[in-house]
Design brief:
Number of strands: 19
Radius of gyration: 19 Å
Number of domains: 2
CATH architecture of the largest domain: Alpha-Beta Complex
Distance between the termini: 29 Å
Structural class: alpha+beta
Order of helices and strands: EEEHHHEEEHEEEEEEEHEEEHEHEE
CATH superfamily of the largest domain: Fumarylacetoacetase-like, C-terminal domain
Length: about 300
């Protein structure tokens, strides 16, 4: 559990609202900061340098009026809905190796040695669901897989940023499950050599394919995003157990690279890749009734049931 505060979203009568958790107490973000414009998490992130100072001050000031128990509201994903979700592919060497073994091919060399930068695909922002949400398995696929990932939340616009200052653009961190329809990624009977073989939309962007949460831990409470334990269980059986220090491309490298292609905007998410232990490497896939629990050190736990 992080020190200070955590940023999340909850369902109110008026719709999604931004909230601040301080210990086990919950406050509406706009009421806590005295800024009526901070209705949603995206509103806060759009004004992040100022909002972060106000939130820090509020957390340090101690108990105040308007408090609710953390468990008294229906929590949503902490960010609804960003302009983009960028997902790093093959960013842990052990995961790249298990996927190569699955396809009976040799693992690719470290892309740094080939002069290559990080590689990302885009996930639909409406695929996001929160902690505790039930995810309906898509009817068009059977091989639905899990992938625990550290997700960075952008808090300042980033365009052509240098590596040394890339992390200055991060507002905070949360947990994501890059749920994947493995058997829908290739279009048959299209030839493997065809540029039209791949179907990334069906593979990665079906409804509910991006569980996110349970909250955002501010970047200031996680000094090094490359030193976090990361784990996943299916029905309490351990499947993934690694550390973010094993990424091929660090988060800073990913931000610097992406910002040479497009402007990263406040609220945008970067899913930084998953370690070994996915279902495809084991020949195991999710089925109705399965409960998937994800944990990242200093952030917490994200849990979803599949139906």
């Amino acid at each position: 559990m992080a020190e200070g505060y955590r940023l999340l979203s909850y369902r109110s009568e008026a719709g999604a609202r931004a909230a601040v958790a301080i210990d086990e107490d919950l406050y509406d973000a706009a009421a806590l900061t005295g800024q009526s414009g901070y209705a949603t998490t995206l509103d806060l992130l759009a004004d992040w340098p100022t909002a972060e100072k106000l939130l820090r001050a509020a957390a340090a000031a101690g108990p105040k009026a308007g408090v609710k128990p953390l468990g008294a509201v229906r929590r949503l994903a902490p960010v609804l809905y960003p302009s983009a979700i960028y997902c790093a592919g093959a960013n842990y060497a052990d995961h790249a190796a298990e996927m190569a073994a699955m396809s009976k091919s040799e693992p690719e060399p470290d892309p740094h040695t080939l002069g290559l930068g990080p590689w990302h695909f885009i996930k639909a922002s409406r695929a996001i669901v929160g902690d505790g949400a039930v995810v309906t398995l898509p009817r068009y696929a059977r091989n639905i897989d899990w992938e625990v990932e550290l997700a960075a939340v952008i808090g300042r616009p980033a365009r052509d940023v240098p590596l040394a200052s890339a992390l200055d653009h991060v507002a905070g961190y949360t947990i994501a499950n890059d749920v994947s329809a493995r058997d829908a990624g290739r279009r048959g009977p299209v030839k493997d050599a065809s540029p039209f073989k791949w179907d990334w939309t069906s593979h990665k962007s079906f409804d509910g394919s991006c569980p996110l949460g349970p909250w955002i831990v501010p970047a200031g409470d996680i000094p090094d995003p490359q030193a976090l334990g990361i784990k996943l269980w299916v029905n309490d059986v351990p499947k993934q157990d690694s550390n973010t220090g094993k990424m091929i491309f660090t988060l800073a490298e990913q931000i610097a690279h992406l910002s040479t292609r497009m402007t990263l905007h406040p609220g945008d998410l970067i899913l930084t890749g998953t370690p070994a232990g996915v279902g495809a490497g084991r020949g195991e896939f999710l089925k109705a009734g399965d409960v998937v629990k994800l944990w990242i050190e200093r952030i917490g736990t994200l849990t979803n049931r599949f139906a």
